[in-house]
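User: Is it possible to get a 3D structure for a protein together with its bound compound? The compound here is pyridoxal-5'-phosphate. I've pasted both below.
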Amino acid sequence: MALLASKVHVRLQLSRAKHPSLTGHSKMARRFAGQVPYYEYDETQFFRADAAPEDIAAARRAGFMRLAALYAQRFAKSAAQTAQLLPAVSDLDFTSRYRVPFQFSRFVREHFKAGSFLQSSSGVSVTDLDGNRLYDLTGSYGVNVFGYDFYKECIERGSERVKDLGPVLGAYHPVVAYNVKRLLEISGLDEVSFHMSGTEAVMQAVRLARYHTGRSHLVRFCGAYHGWWGDVQPGVGNPQPANETYTLNDMDAAALKVLSSRRDIACVLVNPLQALHPNAPAPGDSTLIDSGRRAHFDRDSYAAWLKRLREVCTQRGIALIFDEVFVGFRLAAGGAQEYFGVRADMVTYGKTVAGGLPVGVLCGSHHFMRRFREDRPADVCFARGTFNSHPYVMGAMYEFLQRLDAEPLRSLYRDLDATWNTRAAALNARLEAAALPVRVANLSSIWTVYYVGVSRYNWMFQYYLRAAGLALSWVGTGRLIFSLNYTQADYDAIADALVAAAQQMQGDGWWWSDPRGGRAQLTNKSIRRRVLKEMLQARWRAIRGRASGSYAARPSMGRPSESWSATSPIGSISSPRSK
Ligand SMILES: Cc1ncc(COP(=O)(O)O)c(C=O)c1O
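Assistant: Yes, that's possible. Here is the predicted structure of the complex:
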């Protein structure tokens, strides 16, 4: 009886340590996602999803068609190449579908064909096949910390340095010795292993933690991205349940209680990027069904949280793993450990650290990194990879790490937060003064756009921004990533373009709100309620259609090729991979 009571208590403790959202409940989220039906808005609904009056719908339509004409003319070559490749490249097909909420997606795709091809990069800009120069805010998924010219140089010089050895694998090129020395200095840890991607480095960190603790479970925090390996992606996007993963509420004492009491926890994974939006998934515009997105970074409180986490992990023999694949080298030369003043047992790096070539790095203490046991020689923890320590990757990494220590990079880190915080604050002041419902929040040079008016059309902003000369990644305004070589003049040009794009979007009526106010006014809650109702109706129609043995009653707004059962619904819940 006492045992049962204790088991119930431990289970309740776990429940209390989960974030109340669907994102915090992976299994429920997956079940819900599997039930979301496909449907789409017809042209009338497209422009009046918020029940705007006819004149506003007409203004939106005019703005939309003007923008579509501009896209057709300005991005013609890039769009044509993309269209050719789209059916054969699944990644391209996926990302092009999930740029906006699925109800709007087809109509948008038919009219805005911006293209996914580029021909060159220089300074802080990229140039597409049509010769358009765009300010780069994609940051190449976070790889681009110092500007593309810097990485070109790392790759060129690095290749030159290792060319006599060439692509010989298995043995090491001598540059590896320097890379290891620098990585150990930066991480403050004892050993290094090299991998081909951030995902692999995280996999290895978790495997080692399980091996050395003899425990089964990993803890991740709600919303945090750690790559696409199944165990770190327990919710939507992974068809299998991750039964040895606990997803806990970030920055919450209840999570610490779970760590203090359970005996099956091998490690805790922390992605410090979550400090910008604890417990929320990486923001993508495909989830912008309303204006609920918020973000705010408080360095002191996140640092205090990490310190508490550190203490509990030490007390309980749990491996604390900082996943710095995204933020390492971006926040400070010593990464998040230096930035927040907390040491981890293992740290993963990736993205930028190989000077622009693909890589994953794991650094850890001797205790956690060792892959064998002296006293039990057959009990090993295996990890290999054909391309680990590839000479060309190591060569570019060598160039990266050498430059990190010297000017002009050193000075780029000086006053980094002050620079980017001032820029964000000035932009927000401008947006507010111009009565525009757009704001930005930032973690140093990583930004997210959020919306302070209530609207169903915030996702349109990405298309106005592109027309204004800003290149965003497929997650749209959810993530703007600046490289540190943006000068004040570059930045001013971005800010001007962003304000002008917002003014244009406002002028076209997308942010209309009912002047009667009161109950007539749209709220985030009323939008969500309406979308849920639409889903239930579409589901019901589909069930009736199947029961009658025909597709006559298929969701009326959908096309036969896209019945609800064939379409991934994730856009409405969370973004599966918003780098
Ligand atoms: C924090 C974090 N961990 C792991 C990964 C996975 O890295 P990769 O895409 O190189 O596999 C990413 C990628 O965005 C990331 O941001």
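The pocket of pyridoxal-5'-phosphate is lined by residues 141, 197-199, 202, 225-227, 271, 323, 325-326, 350, 360, 579 (CB under 6 Å). The longest strand covers residues 265-270.
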